[in-house]
Amino acid sequence: VFSKIARAVAGKSKVDDEVLDNLEEVLITSDVGVETTLNIIKRIEERVAKDKYVNTQELNKILREEIAALLTENNTVDSDDFTVPEGKKPYVIMVVGVNGVGKTTTIGKLAYQFKKAGKTVYLGAADTFRAAAVEQLDIWGERVGVPVIKQKMGSDPASVAFDTLSSAVANNADVVIIDTAGRLHN
């Protein structure tokens, strides 16, 4: 995002409406939500108005500060509260998304948090198509100390999910997290 911003403001000496429009476009095309983007732009406009003159070199610093402030303000979740809904066990989370967004890493972090909260966690390596996907999940399983249910490369992902759930039920696990192959979803 920040390299795109640098290109968008190249040649500009101060933050004006054109720079803010370019910044808004960069944020939205970088998958920052529209509401969040507009909030960031509003906050930057207020700072520019208050400081009277802000050059484009300061924009990255201001942007980082405003994003950090937004994240801090909106962080109302108790990160120690990793409870699962009451009811039938295990609680199943299937993680989906496009390639390269950090699904497997997020699964490792979720598994760590659930385990830290005293939950028994099973991971399912249902991304059977991406080279090294199973190995990546295995590494997270080892780091966190939770079992990873897997099959060979190219196996049916649904059968991996089924095996994971079966193992979790047999062992009275609290949480199952299934890693999936990244695909564009329509």
UniProtKB/TrEMBL annotation:
The keyword GTP-binding applies. Gene3D superfamilies: P-loop containing nucleotide triphosphate hydrolases (3.40.50.300), Signal recognition particle SRP54, nucleotide-binding domain (1.20.120.140). It is a peripheral membrane protein. It holds the Pfam family SRP54. GO terms for biological process: SRP-dependent cotranslational protein targeting to membrane. The keyword Nucleotide-binding applies. SMART domains: SRP54, SRP54_N. It is found in: Endomembrane system. Residues 90-186 form the SRP54-type proteins GTP-binding domain. GO terms for cellular component: cytoplasm; endomembrane system; plasma membrane. Residues 1-71 form the Signal recognition particle SRP54 helical bundle domain. SUPFAM superfamilies: Domain of the SRP/SRP receptor G-proteins, P-loop containing nucleoside triphosphate hydrolases. Keywords: GTP-binding, Membrane, Nucleotide-binding, Receptor. One of its GO terms (molecular function) is GTPase activity. Belongs to the GTP-binding SRP family. This is Signal recognition particle-docking protein FtsY. It comes from human gut metagenome.
